[in-house]
Design goal:
Elements (H helix, E strand, L loop, with lengths): L8 E4 L4 H18 L9 H13 L6 E9 L2 E11 L4 E9 L8 H19 L7 E7 L11 H10 L3 E3 L18 E7 L7 E3 H14 L10 H10 L4 E6 H4 L9 E4 L8 H11 L9 H11 L7 E8 L8 E7 L3 E9 L8 H15 L6 E6 L4 H6 L3 E2 L24 E6 L11 H14 L10 H10 L26 E2 L4
Parallel strand pairs: 4-5, 13-14
Antiparallel strand pairs: 1-2, 2-3, 3-4, 5-7, 6-7, 6-9, 8-9, 10-11, 11-12, 12-13, 14-16, 14-17, 15-16
Length: about 500
Amino acid sequence: MSSDSQSLTFRELQHKPDDLEILERFYGDIYVAEFPIRDERESLQNMRNYLRLKATGWYGRNNYHILMGFADGNPVAGAFVDYLDEPNSGVVEFLVVSHELRGTGCGRRLLEETEKLLASDAVALGKAGLDCIVAEMNDPFKQTRDSMDPFIRAAIWDGWGYRRLDFPYVQPALSKDQVRVDDLLLIAKARRSELEAGLPAAKVKAILAGYMHWAMRLERPEATLEYKYMARHLDAVDAVPMQGLRTYTGRDARRPLAIHEITGPADPELAAGLAIYARAFPGARTDVSPDNFRAALMDRAASVRETRYHFWTIRAAHEAAIEGMASFFTFPDAGFGGYITLDGSLRGTGRLALLLARVEERMIRDAIGATGWYIECAPDHEQLFAQHGFYAVDVAYSQPPLPGGTVYSPAEAPPLLLMYKLFGRNFETPALLAHTFRENMARVFHTVYGMESVLQSPFYSRLCEQTEAWPDGHVRFRTAPALQDAGEGVSAAIQIHSQ
């Protein structure tokens, strides 16, 4: 099989026997393996039917295409796309490249040909060109099976000019035997300069309605629960902002972050990381001794299977001076984070959001089941972290004494908030079971605060007593404060304590 993307040839499939045989072969040999989640996968029967409907003129001023790429006479890449007349937009339903051809430029070639095909639909209708193209993508921060590392996929599509649309996208069930999919992003590429800052909400709604009708065969998309849910958010804004996919995953060429993982007490960067910590946290009751970090790093190699500990040093670039640090744990169900400080050239530059995304990626890559994380913060930092998607748990939180620190009672505990965030961008208050919360905090109290008998601890008992008042067995969160620009000039004191 040729690996040169320039040797690819392309042909649009029609509803005729030879093309249907090619489609069936491609579907069985390549498509199914590239879309392992059944609820995200279109059926071969539907694809055949779409080609049949197209041949009858059913799509009218809209269109449907299956564009196939061939190497050495074999189908190795395919794009399944729609043109929607009303919003003058294209929809990439699936873009599929044989696993063996990844990294060869074949995906880019296929997408370029696909974009030309969609643009020709607009021109054929007398329009100056296409307004935009949208596509679905697995959200890297939502843990689902995927045929490719979702963070790498996001970087690839970012390089192709696609950006995340900032609204909650839900894919309706593709058939009666499938269920809706909540863990997707809708990404977009503007084809007109005036749309690059964001798409008008009315256009996004028209794209959704058209996609659901022409591609999913829903007679009245506006009547579905999925459309109503998305429309409720879209009706609250004039335009839907777009964010670079690399920025979403914590990487921004304009604001680079170079992160080094401290591997143990002998790591040559540990001293500099501890010096940054000591300047930001000079010894209050919520600040641990540097020896606690060393102990946590020593325990790291021998840590239990269900615990991961991380200490990072942070720079603006690999050759720059260390100006930040982060310390956090990953546990099953949820992580616990941490002392974070960004100073010098990192401070006040918008890098906190990027760093939080990188922490979440690391917790996901630890692969022990965390889907969100807790932080402890000073009450005057609530708005700062609410801006970044954290919700304050509705409890009077008593931080336990630090290992080796001053002993005190719950009533004497430092005033801190306990906050929680699901990984990634979220548009609703988290749904978290109270018993899961209690299990999470028991693990934190045992591992982070060194409690041998958590169930006998007055700190844990006080926390559990408050959860009994929560209705329906779910965690209750405080109403988020009005979000204003809280800035990032603070030393982002998220309290985390090592063993």
